[in-house]
Amino acid sequence: MPHFIMDCSEQIAEQKSPADIIQSVYDAVYSTKLFLLKEILKK
């Protein structure tokens, strides 16, 4: 199972919340149609 590890500067986190960034990644992964929703976990 692929993993995404994100690291960003505090400046990025000030522009967009970590939850919003994670949601963007989640949406992008799902849009590939390579994974089912139940296979994509957010922690």
Count the E strands: 0
Radius of gyration: 12 Å
What is the overall pLDDT average? Answer: 86
The number of helical runs is: 2
| CA-CA gap between termini | 15 Å
The major sheet is characterized as:
none
pLDDT < 50 runs, ≥5 residues: none
Strand content: under 5%
Helix and strand content put the structural class at mainly alpha
Outline, from the CA principal axes?
elongated
Helix percent reads 40-55%
Provide the succession of SSEs.
HH
GO molecular function: isomerase activity
Protein name: 5-carboxymethyl-2-hydroxymuconate isomerase
Keywords: Isomerase
Description:
By secondary structure, the protein is mainly α. It has a domain at 10-34. The chain is 47% helix and 0% strand. The protein is built from 2 helices and no strands. It has helices spanning 10-15, 18-31. The chain is elongated and about 30 Å long. The mean pLDDT is 86.
Itemize the secondary structure elements and their pairings.
Layout: H1 10-15, H2 18-31
Fill in the keyword field for this structure.
elongated, isomerase, 5-carboxymethyl-2-hydroxymuconate isomerase, mainly alpha, 0% strand, isomerase activity, 43 residues
Brief digest:
It is built from two helices and no strands. With 43 residues, the protein is mainly alpha-helical.
